[in-house]
């Protein structure tokens, strides 16, 4: 799914959209017991509750594509009878009216999802009359091309509110407030089927994780039957290991900086693309070569890549480099600079010592005190 397609679905979670037919839920205790379940016609809920649910649903489709929102393909065997995709299709087609299917879904979540404390499983059924668009992207009223029906699942931690004092108008005093169990924003969720090319894609789902470094592999594998995504931190560590093993003893500052800059450049070139930039083996090899990695070192690349990067797993470019900072670290000193200013840093041998040299192009301050420059009036 692209950014525009995600945004289009999120717009359904607003007043007067009328696209949510039913909602169901299961409140799970800390010992994995079902405390209560419910299912309702969504718009029979109180208006204040509807808007609170909208916040949760929008959050389930928030964050960055490739980090928080990950497109997952179903393996072929999951689409046969008894497979995970086939089960989700039956659940969607039931319009959340089949109590037995819902109980089976809750059981699957409880068995595969790990969470400290209580949590709420929310499931909604969506029916969206997809409007047609002109070639220039303008919407056409009364020109529906397809009805997109889907499920959105949100799994939200439920925690006690913090203790404290609150104002009581009856007594005109501040007194201890009653602690309530509050539903927090979702930790994980998914949209099934995915909405790709503004159409139904029964072969994939859009998966959400609040923390990109906690993809909940067991949940993805057991409930969705898809290959769990690599955590963002793992992708970055793999890329760093690949650089280390390829360069070997020739891990020089200029080469490493050049690799970072080349990845950043490709990210900048693709910033207007609808989907996140991914790098396969050939892309990474080209970046290394363009960054000045010597041919002798590149002879190590193939074996290192195959050993470090899982097969058929493209890396998300924004996950392998830090777009906000470039860091040089020694046991005693850490220097951070914005990636666009790495050209101000270089390494030099001075008096027999390997030094990091910072080019000064503007005023310098020490602990907030600007240094005196020669010729400056005092």
The shape is globular
Mean pLDDT: 89
Class computed from helices, strands and strand pairing? alpha+beta
What's the helix count?
11
Secondary structure: helix percent = 25-40%
What's the gyration radius in Å?
Answer: 26 Å
Note poorly predicted spans: none
Largest sheet: 8 strands, antiparallel
Distance between the termini: 61 Å
Q: DSSP strand (E) fraction?
A: 25-35%
- Count the E strands: 20
Describe the protein in words:
There is one protein chain. The chain is of the alpha+beta class. 30% of the residues lie in helices and 31% in strands. It is built from eleven helices and 20 strands. The protein has helices at 3-10, 47-59, 84-93, 99-112, 217-224, 232-247, 253-269, 281-290, 295-298, 301-308, 317-320; strands spanning 20-28, 34-41, 69-73, 118-133, 139-160, 165-168, 173-176, 181-183, 188-192, 194-196, 199-201, 204-209, 278-279, 315-316, 326-329, 334-337, 345-350, 353-358, 365-366, 369-370. Strands 1, 2, 3, 4, 5, 8, 9 and 12 form an eight-stranded antiparallel beta sheet that branches. A two-stranded antiparallel sheet has the order 6-7. Helix 4 packs antiparallel against helix 5 (217-224) and helix 6 runs antiparallel to helix 10 (301-308). The longest helix is centred in the C-terminal third of the chain and has 17 residues, at 253-269. The radius of gyration is 26 Å and the shape is globular. The termini are far apart. The mean pLDDT is 89.
């Amino acid at each position: 799914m692209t950014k525009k397609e995600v945004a289009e679905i999120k717009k359904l979670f607003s007043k007067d959209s009328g696209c949510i037919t039913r909602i169901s839920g299961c409140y799970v205790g800390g010992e994995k017991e079902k405390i209560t379940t419910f299912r309702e016609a969504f718009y029979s809920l109180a208006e204040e509750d509807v808007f609170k649910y909208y916040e949760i649903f929008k959050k389930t489709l928030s964050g960055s594509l490739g980090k928080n929102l990950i497109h997952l393909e179903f393996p072929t065997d999951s689409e046969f009878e008894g497979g995970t995709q086939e089960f989700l299709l039956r659940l969607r087609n039931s319009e959340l009216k089949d109590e037995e299917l819902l109980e089976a879904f809750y059981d699957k979540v409880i068995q595969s999802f790990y969470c400290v404390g209580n949590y709420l499983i929310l499931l909604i059924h969506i029916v969206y009359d997809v409007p047609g668009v002109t070639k220039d992207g303008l919407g056409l009223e009364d020109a529906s091309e397809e009805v997109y029906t889907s499920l959105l699942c949100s799994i939200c931690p439920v925690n006690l509110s913090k203790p404290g004092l609150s104002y009581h108008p009856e007594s005109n005093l501040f007194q201890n407030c009653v602690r309530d169990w509050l539903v927090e924003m979702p930790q994980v969720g998914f949209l099934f089927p995915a909405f790709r090319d503004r159409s139904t894609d029964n072969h994939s789902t859009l998966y959400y994780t609040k923390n990109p470094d906690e993809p909940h592999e067991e949940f993805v594998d057991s409930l969705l039957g898809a290959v769990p995504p690599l955590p963002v931190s793992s992708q970055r560590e793999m890329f760093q290991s690949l650089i280390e093993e390829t360069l070997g003893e020739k891990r020089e500052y200029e080469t490493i900086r050049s690799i970072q800059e080349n990845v950043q450049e490709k990210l900048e070139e693709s910033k207007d693309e609808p989907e996140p930039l991914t790098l396969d083996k050939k892309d990474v090899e080209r970046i290394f070569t363009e960054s000045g990695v010597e041919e002798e070192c590149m002879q190590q690349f193939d074996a290192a890549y195959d050993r470090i990067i899982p097969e058929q797993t493209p890396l998300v470019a924004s996950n392998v480099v830090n777009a906000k900072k470039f860091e040089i670290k020694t046991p005693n000193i850490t220097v951070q600079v914005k990636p666009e200013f790495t050209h101000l840093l270089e390494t030099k041998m001075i008096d027999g010592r390997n030094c990091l040299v910072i080019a000064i192009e503007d005023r310098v301050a020490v602990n907030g005190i600007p240094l005196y420059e020669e010729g400056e009036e005092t």
